Amino acid sequence: MIRFLYACALTLMQPLVRRKLARRALDEPVYGEAVEERFGHYTAPAETTSNLIWVHAVSLGETRAAAVLVAQLRAQLPGMRLLLTHGTATGRVQGRSLLRDGDLQVWQPWDTSAAVARFLAHFRPRIGLLMETEVWPNLVAGCATAGVPLCLVNARLSDKSLRQAEQLGWLSRPAYRGLRAVWAQSEADAQRLRSLGAPVMGVMGNFKFDATPDATQLAQGKAMRLQSAKPVLVFASSREGEEAMLLEKFKQKVPLATVDIAQAAPETIANTVHWLIVPRHPQRFAEVAKLFEDAGLRVSRRSNWVDGVPAEADIWLGDTLGEMALYFGLADAALLGGSFAPLGGQNLIEAAACGCPVVMGPHTFNFAEAAQLAQAAGAAFVATDLAQAVDQAIALVQSPQALQQAEDAALALGLAHRGAAQRTAEAVIALLLG
């Protein structure tokens, strides 16, 4: 009865979903593509055999992590066909790079019984692999009815998400219990997932440690860094409100004794280093540029750089997708977006893989284990707020020895925690063949 009421509520919400997609498509046109797929209506012919391996990666970060699992599955299942689903435009765009001949990519079905049933009947997946956190009640129930084993891979669950799930236990517990298998990132994640009834089959580690940065982008970023007259700090994946915090910090003066630049008067934090701001969400690029321009600062957007060369400006704005390796290569150190507002922080593993040490705020609950591992290794540092983080980052990049030690620690961190995708692929194949 509870799930029936939930399904009715989601059915009634469909007109609102359509309007929201239309609004978002004004800034991100991909949201206007193939809208009917979200409700279980497809133009491609229905599958006649059950040989698709379905991977659901809701957004950009999950899609990047899914890439290493897909590569491992292809290596161990020759001729594998991939069905890739997403919920966001950034995920869908990134996912295109994973497709081969015979693969399919569609939107995740809206979680009504009818849409899920049409999705499963049309594609007939052999198995479903949900990345990280994407557990939807009707999707789980529909897979059980259709006989599709549905698994949660690279699974994580924060304390905050656990509390929210417990508040909706009448809906969430049957969903977690209905999964065929769960492979968690950490033992702490595993314990939280088990408390909801999830069938945790093992702790595999985090796929993101297996991802290799784009070598061309990384080299290009490092070459840019060598041309910079000052150290470069990147505010990576900044979230709403955090850029305003940084702007407040810019208003402070710093004494000459703390900076390695000979000038006649104290300068601002804004020009002590080169600042590179990379907002998390592309729809905010223009908003963030305006914020700094309204404060009287010159902003140069990456999309306007001539021949890839940063223009002279107070702020460089990373307004492109899929170039984080370039941005981390360009930077001497990073501030971790989402960790200074109570948003849980973004993933720092990609920064570490690029050899870019991180200064993070107090809110890292979304990636708690990775943050703890990085801090223990000396690849990341914790600040109480953004103002203190800026001071720490500037001190770090002005100390060559400390910076080199942090860079070495960041690279070593990624190498020490590889293998999760391979272990998970092997477990998935054992489940398929068992």
From TrEMBL:
The 3-deoxy-D-manno-octulosonic-acid transferase N-terminal domain, residue ranges: 34-211
Residues of the active site: E62
Pathway this chain belongs to: Bacterial outer membrane biogenesis; LPS core biosynthesis
Entry keyword annotation includes Repeat: no
One GO term (biological process): lipid A biosynthetic process
PANTHER family linked: 3-DEOXY-D-MANNO-OCTULOSONIC ACID TRANSFERASE, MITOCHONDRIAL-RELATED (PTHR42755:SF1), 3-DEOXY-MANNO-OCTULOSONATE CYTIDYLYLTRANSFERASE (PTHR42755)
Protein name in the entry: 3-deoxy-D-manno-octulosonic acid transferase
Source organism per UniProt: Rhodoferax saidenbachensis
Lineage: Bacteria, Pseudomonadati, Pseudomonadota, Betaproteobacteria, Burkholderiales
